[in-house]
Model the fold of this input.
Amino acid sequence: MVLLDAIVRACPPWVLRISGITMVRDFFPERIETDRLVLERVSHENVEPFEVYELVDRDEWQNDVTEHMPWFRFRRLDQVAEFIDKAEQQWADRDTARYLLRSKEDDGELVGTTAYGPEWEQRRAGSGIVLSKRYWGREYGLERASAFVELTFETYDLDVFYTSCAADNEPSRRMIEKYVEKYGGRYEGLLRQHGSRRPNGEVTDQHRFTITQEEYEEATAEMETLEFDLDW
Done:
């Protein structure tokens, strides 16, 4: 049984056949662990709405943290529960994997959320993050993004990883530039009126960045990639 479990963990996340037995695995990892972070699937099994509400009810979250992503500015407990409901549905639809971000440096404290969104027909994937302000500057966003970049090319064999940030979101832009440069990607330019519509109806300009599979392979040919553990 131990050997079988090791084989299951090592195989890609599709359908595994051993001795005529078909074993179906999740499309996305249930848990991702890097040096300083644990990413857990957003689900009612993994988190109570009250714990998430305690995070999003802080003044910093309602202001600076969600300044550029106000649709994560939950103001009621039922809105948090609906967010978890939607995350479970997106997971089941193989559309988006949403994760809780926990800091190993702070005894597993919940510090934010992140998402990984593959677009299967277009053979590309993107990611976003909302991080508590008190953890800015630790490069948690960079560590999380590195894991998703490597998943895109090493596990899912997609062609492009892309991301964007609002034109006036300088902290996010600096973070993105670091990992895009690390993996050989490039800045594509400013896309006008390209962001998601905000609650007030505004649509923001967005800086867009991409990394192709070829760029990734060239950049990592003689570089140690990020070490992280996956639980499927």
Summary: The longest strand covers residues 109-119.
